[in-house]
Write a structure and sequence with these properties.
- The termini are far apart.
- 49% of the residues are buried.
- This protein is of the alpha/beta class.
- It is 35% helix and 18% strand.
- Keywords: ATP-binding, Ligase, NAD, Nucleotide-binding.
- GO terms for molecular function: NAD+ synthase (glutamine-hydrolyzing) activity.
- It is an enzyme of class 6 (ligase).
Length: 571
């Protein structure tokens, strides 16, 4: 009878589509598990193909390659070392059949997002995810088949109840496992970051524990995938809900846990390393850095180029870029116009000196003059307006894209969520870019993050220990500087008001009466709502960016561009 078990949890950062590379990560983790004397290695949800694979799982070629690597990993376990519990796509066959006898030549609707247990050179068992994610950034029902409610896996004399991510968010899966004789619950997850989610996960885990009276281990993925960041933070709770192990957030981590069976027959995890979760601003900042770092690395860009305005958005974006990939791979470009203030010129240059990046100054004055002459026949007799302002922004966008084309560096766009929400940005101008670190960060949070980074440096940041921007960038009134004496508040409500209203409209989808009950002016709310609605066409053309809130403007909030509804009411 087994009375002790050593389980190693690999908080991994796989790359979507890099099946061989991901399999090698699993092999490396298994070697660590072997050296640690572990009986079982656990890796995250769909760790073999990366997560979320989206429509890649409709490609038979990808599935066949995954099947070949899965066979190879299964053969690796014949050496008597640790078994492997991993996430992989599996074909639609009866659970008692050998899935390796069926070639992946079918469509995604016949594929499971599965947990697969390999040991002793054999397939011990596998199960499909029951509750497929069909909201927010995930759309699994399009490409995966729902898994059945099943019992635990037998592993070296222990009945291990396995669930897959969303399966923990409802009681059915874990209760079924417990009723079928599971002695512990182990979850493999690809759960994306948003502020405050760490507590949500642990509260849900506690609910499942109280229902099942079983210890629960939760392994989460880490890393960036397009606009998603997986934050790790894996943990183990005993049946009394006590925290026994906690992995760090945002870091790849290898966590070894010792389990023992008590006299009453109940399993428990012995106390292990516990690393406290990040505070809110630290967590958001590290998510932004990781999102940028992995987007650059996984898409093999040599570096980043940023339009440096002397304002807070570009300064914070530059700091994030430097912390992500290092100062030697970041290039900042100031593109002054006749309206650029001396303060902005000084602040931009000082910020780049603090960051240690290469700095260029390229005047857009000649471009403005050229466009004025080019367009004179068409614009004759008209008054100057936002058209001329947008020409400045587009001249800067053209300049940055030329540098990007020539050097191969990716343009990092710098617009924040407040601006993207209300359309305070220029298409093909300051919206140019391959990625946007601040796309889901409200302006008020931009200020808070800038102050935080001037006082703190994350352990994995590649930028300076000291301040990353001059204090004046944080304290001066924000301005696009597209005309004399311009400030953002000429066109927008104060940012604390704007952001408060936007959170009501975007994150909470509140009716007008509830927004007004918070003390906001009705005309201002209606104005913000209208700007939010009308800017949808711009957002559809914007660069992807790191998702850090519960509801972003890309995959979460889906409104039609062609939309005649204008009736924000007092319902």
């Amino acid at each position: 009878m087994t009375e002790k078990l050593t389980i190693a949890f690999a908080q991994m950062n796989p790359t979507v589509g890099d099946i061989r590379g991901n399999a090698d990560l699993i092999r490396d983790a298994r070697k660590q598990a072997l050296d640690a004397g572990a009986d079982l290695l656990v890796t995250p949800e769909l760790s073999l193909v990366g997560y979320p694979p989206e429509d890649l799982v409709l490609k038979p070629e990808l599935l066949l390659e995954a099947q070949a690597e899965l066979r190879s990993l299964m053969a690796d376990t014949a050496d008597g070392g640790p078994g492997i519990l991993l996430g992989a796509p599996m074909p639609d066959v009866k659970l008692q059949e050998n899935p390796f006898k069926k070639a992946f030549t079918t469509t995604g609707s016949e594929i499971y997002n599965a947990a697969v247990l390999l040991d002793g050179g054999s397939l011990v068992g596998w199960k499909g995810k029951h509750f497929l994610c069909d909201y927010s950034v995930f759309d699994e029902k399009r490409v995966f088949k729902q898994g059945a409610l099943t019992g635990p896996f037998p592993f070296r004399g222990v009945r291990v109840g396995v669930f897959i991510c969303e399966d923990m968010w409802d009681s059915d899966v874990c209760e079924t496992l417990a009723e079928a004789g599971a002695e512990m619950l182990v979850g493999i997850n690809g759960s994306q970051f948003n502020a405050g989610k760490t507590d949500t996960r642990q509260h849900l885990a506690i609910e499942r524990i109280k229902e099942c009276d079983l210890p629960l281990a939760y392994l989460n993925m880490v890393g960036g995938q397009d606009d998603i960041v997986f934050d790790g933070g894996s943990f183990v709770l005993n049946a009394d809900c006590s925290l026994q192990a906690q992995a760090p957030m945002f870091d790849e981590h290898f966590m070894v846990t010792e389990w023992a069976k008590g006299r009453d027959g109940a399993w428990s995890c012995l106390p292990a390393e516990k690393i406290a979760p990040e505070e809110e601003l630290s967590a958001i900042y590290r998510a932004l850095v990781l999102g940028v770092r992995d987007y650059i690395a996984k898409n093999r860009f040599p570096g980043i180029v940023i339009g440096m305005s002397g304002g807070i958005d570009s300064a914070l974006s530059a700091a994030i870029a430097v912390d992500a990939i290092g100062p030697d791979r970041v290039r900042c470009v100031m593109m002054p116009s006749p309206y650029t203030s001396r303060d902005s010129l000084e602040d931009a240059e000082l910020a780049t000196k603090l960051l240690g990046v290469k700095y260029d100054s390229i005047s857009i004055g000649p471009a403005m003059k050229a466009f004025e002459e080019m367009l004179a026949p068409v614009m004759a007799g008209t008054e100057a307006d936002t058209t001329e302002e947008n020409i400045q922004a587009r001249s800067r966008g053209l300049t940055l894209m030329a540098i990007s084309n020539k050097l191969g560096f990716m343009v990092l766009s710098t617009g924040n969520k407040s601006e993207m929400s209300v359309g305070y940005a220029t298409l093909y101008g300051d919206m140019c870019g391959g990625y946007n670190a601040l796309k889901d960060v409200y302006k008020t949070k931009v200020f808070a993050l800038s102050r935080w980074r001037n006082e703190h440096k994350p352990h994995d940041a590649l930028g300076p220990v000291a301040a990353v921007m001059p204090e004046r960038i944080i304290t001066k009134p924000p301005s696009a500087e597209l005309k004399p004496d311009q400030t953002d508040q000429d066109s927008l409500p104060k940012y604390d008001v704007l952001d408060g209203i936007l959170e009501c409209l975007i994150e909470e989808e509140l009716p007008l009466v509830d927004i007004l009950a918070k003390g906001y002016d009705e005309s201002t709310v209606r104005r913000v709502w209208r700007m939010l609605d009308l800017a949808e066409y711009k957002r559809r053309q914007s660069a992807p960016g790191v998702r850090v809130t519960a509801r972003d403007l890309a995959r979460d909030r889906r409104y039609p561009i062609t939309n005649a509804f204008r009736g924000l009411t007092n319902r």
